[in-house]
Amino acid sequence: MSKVKAVLSRKQKQLKEHIIDHYFPYGELMQITEDERSVTLEVSLKERLISQNEHVSLIFLNKKKEIMLSVKGHPKKNENGSYLYQFDLIKCDLRFEEYRRNYYLSIQSGKRQFRLRYINGFDEAKSIEFFENDHNLFFIRRDRHQRLFLRTSNYDLLKVCDLPNFLESIIYRDEQIIVEGELFNQSLEKNVPEIRYYFAVKKSNKVYFKAPITITGNRYNASIPIDKNTLLSKGKWGLFIVAENEEMESDFPVYVRRAAEEACSIQVLIPTSRETISFRTSIINGKIFVSTSHLDIEPNKLLFNKQGELLHITIKVESSNIAFHPEDAQNISLRFRQRDTNGYYELPLNLHNHNSEYHLTGVLPYRDLTSDPIDRPRRWDVFIGIKKDENYIDYRIRKNGLRGVKKQTSYVKKDDSDHYESMFYPAKHNKLSFVYTQTPLLKYIDSYSVDNGQLILKGKAFFRSISNMKLSEYELLIVLVNRRTEEEIRFKAERDKGLFEGRQGFKAIIPIGDLQKLVGAFKEILDFYLLVEGPGVYRKVKLGLKDFKYYKDELLKDFTAEDLSGNVVEYNMTTTPRGNLKLESFVYEKDLYTAMQESAKEFPKEEIWLVGERPDTAQDNGYRFFEYCRKKHPDLNIYYAIDSDSPDKQKLQELGQVLEIGSREHIEKSIRATVFIGTHDLDYILPYKGIKFKNYREGQKVFLQHGVLGRKNVPYHKKYYKYPFNVFIVSSDAEKDMVVKKFGYLHSEVAVTGLARFDKLWENHHPKNEILLIPTWREWISSEENLINSSYYHKYLSFITSEELADLLEKYDLKLNFYPHYRMQQYIVNHVNLDNPRIKLVEFGDKSVQALIKDNRIMITDYSSVSFDFTYLGKPVIYYHFDPELFFASGILRPIEETFLGDIVSDSSELVQKLEEAVLRGFKEREDIIPRKEGIFSVIDERNNERIMDSILDQK
């Protein structure tokens, strides 16, 4: 039904446009000329449109259809049933005070009014396109029906909305967009001093690329660099002449005359580090725009013929759909781009010309892509690539009806450790991809219960395999792993076919007393795994629920036990966002636990604020807000919760009111707290599950945030909480709009304050000529073995040990500070030998992240939100994106160009190149970054904490 409505709506619009073009009455402009005193319009009018004995006037209408000016016409001659009228506009009589007012030109004869439009075949060469007087610029424009209107600018008020300019050619050559045209800037120069001019390709979100314009007389030209690292995101771009001086910056649309439309209508293919971009211009009503999209191709046919370990591939494409020349025949290949490395595998293709089709054939040896053991899927996106010089024009293969491709192309192999499968498959939007993966193991818990001191789990597990692997051939174990220590205990899972209608069900009985072997601290998290072990298979995978609704603060089940010291151990079963099961344990003294149960239903009378970050840190927004409160509001009953062995604990002691997590005082304060403030989940600072206590359920919950949102899709949506945040802190209006629209919070719950840590960024900010390398983590790396086998580890290791980096550091007398993510730190410390004295490994606790941000002049990261602090200070950031498809597999909140304000590269050579460019700029951020900051920071000052405090108090 919706498709039918869309078709009907489209046809109605087409009919309306046809009626306006062919059935409405019009006056037709023949010519428009000027002299020093006046502007003359010659207009042809059908005899039937003219009322007898009535004046014919040219009128100026505003948007309200009010007549702002009327000029009487003079008939010149009558021929072929039409009158030719002349209208003389005296320039000095034309004065419009209002800025950027459009005036619609119409003809009035008696009581009739009808619009004025260009006559078919209008000769622009014999007419003017704009005129001026001492006060105004009048630009003559047309709409899609060729109807005339004037755009006015006011020089007296310096309100100029147009700069007369006409693009005559645009080409792409040698990684540059080269433009030439005419520019009439004399009047602007008289009224605005010391103007610099640029040609810009600009998007609505303030992302742009620009280059200086060279002006000779009324002629101009410019060359805008567009290379493989230029972030030409998909969408619509405008072309502008930018005029700026120390006090103003104005963007003026670029126009095209009809005679130049063909020369300015181009489509070029621009290779980038990831996909080829189609750069296409379009001209609408005399304005020029650019549309960018990823280049793709839909073959007529995709044929696969599997013969043992070889896959014969035939791709049939329309010859008109691919930019191909006979000399390219030896340079065409099927290109597989690996998502986690951005590296390519190339399969040469043979080309055969069949009438209007090209037939591309090749043979894929499966072993080329499946030679090594893996523990997580490896994926490639598939392109038809044509090599031109040193670059590739890559066409992403897209094809409807790919459902059968998995079965046609599947290949099975096994080694000593596991069974594997590989195949082509349809990715998003029916784009062709290839995957190499372990044989899929489907597993889940269907039910759980506690009975007679035992935790009983019932579930199902089976291989979804094209090779008919049977789970009955292997041993099943349930494994609980301490997330902190990685210690584990195992429990045998018995098969119970009757449970699940004969389908490989299992049942595991876990004595609750055995869980205490993994409980060594006040709070622990125990993750559930299923271990499949047997001949040729060893698979340890997280175990969760098949059907679940995720809440961060919900409990599935809770139970208690007594440890050897007589303490109460409370276990709470919860899930991760993906539905994986975990147990969260707390150890309490018995009398304290009794007191907690008694107070759980009461709301405290006194006001206590509890604040913190991750349990082991005091470096972020939590610490800075606590510091602000202790110094500016010393009477406030606020406490900071932190682990007793945290390196950051000492600096907190100087401020006072510090609680060691799990201590008796921490528990007593927490059960009486009324305001809970955190940078992450509030569970980090609580000694209990909050949902069990009335003071938490009804208390005020404040989310200070760890950074600026907009990159990775993070699970802070309101729908994930039974008791969501009352105050959600953001840094800009754009971020607030996103939190309201995508996270479901009310406008009144989201406060644009800026981050607490921003207040201290300017304090003692004296950076050295040093570079900060600070990667973020990859959640799929769950062990040391995963780490050392990951492309993440090898990419960073190869960069910091590369000769290119060493040469750059030596050449410019620089140092690099490498601050690995805390989950990676210990392995780097113990196993990586950095023998370059210019590269320093910064260990956790040596310096705070904020100190590192202040001390360095350039930052290299991949996706970390600490880059916003660097941008806040106006320093350059370079983003190393070698695996964005994997990192953003769960979604991205805002377009990449809105939040990654800096150079984006995909390999280490490009990274070194951009480092050198930043050094040669004097360690300054790129000029185009500055206007884009508005989408990240609404205010840049040192009053962020003050605004946060006001927002908390306003909600109380």
Detail the topology: elements first, then pairings.
Layout (H helix, E strand, L loop, with lengths): L1 H21 L4 E8 L3 E9 L9 E6 L5 E13 L2 E9 L11 E8 L2 E7 L11 E3 L3 E7 L5 E7 L10 E9 L2 E8 L2 H6 L4 E7 L5 E5 L1 E3 L2 E7 L9 E10 L4 E5 L13 E4 L6 E8 L2 E8 L1 E2 L3 E7 L2 E9 L13 E7 L5 E5 L1 E5 L2 E9 L12 E11 L2 E7 L7 H5 L1 E4 L4 E8 L5 E7 L2 E11 L2 E10 L11 E8 L5 E8 L9 E7 L11 E12 L2 E6 L14 E6 L5 E8 L5 E8 L1 H10 L9 E4 L8 H12 L5 E5 L6 H5 L4 E3 L3 H7 L4 E4 L15 H5 L1 E4 L23 E4 L2 H11 L6 E3 L17 E4 L10 H5 L2 H10 L2 H9 L3 E4 L3 H10 L7 E3 L7 H7 L2 E4 L5 H6 L4 E4 L3 H4 L8 H4 L3 E3 L2 H13 L8 H4 L11 H12 L1
Helix pairs in contact: 5-20
How would you describe this structure to a colleague?
With 956 residues, the chain is of the alpha+beta class. It is 17% helix and 38% strand. The strands form 8 sheets. Strands 34, 35, 36, 37, 38, 39, 40, 41, 42 and 43 form a 10-stranded antiparallel beta sheet that branches. Strands 22, 25, 26, 29, 30, 31, 32 and 33 form an 8-stranded mixed beta sheet that branches. Helix 5 (621-632) crosses helix 20. The protein starts with a helix and ends with a helix. The model has no long low-confidence stretch (mean pLDDT 91).
Keywords:
956 residues, alpha+beta, 10-stranded antiparallel β-sheet, 8-stranded mixed β-sheet, 38% strand
Strand content: 35-45%
The major beta sheet can be summarized as: 10 strands, antiparallel
User: What is the radius of gyration?
Assistant: 34 Å
| Dominant shape | globular
How far the N terminus sits from the C terminus, by CA atoms, comes to 49 Å
How many individual helices? 20
Low-confidence parts: none
The portion of residues assigned to helices is: 10-25%
The secondary structure category is alpha+beta
* Oligomerization status of the protein chains: single chain
Q: What is the average of the pLDDT values?
A: 91
Annotation, overall tally of beta strands: 56
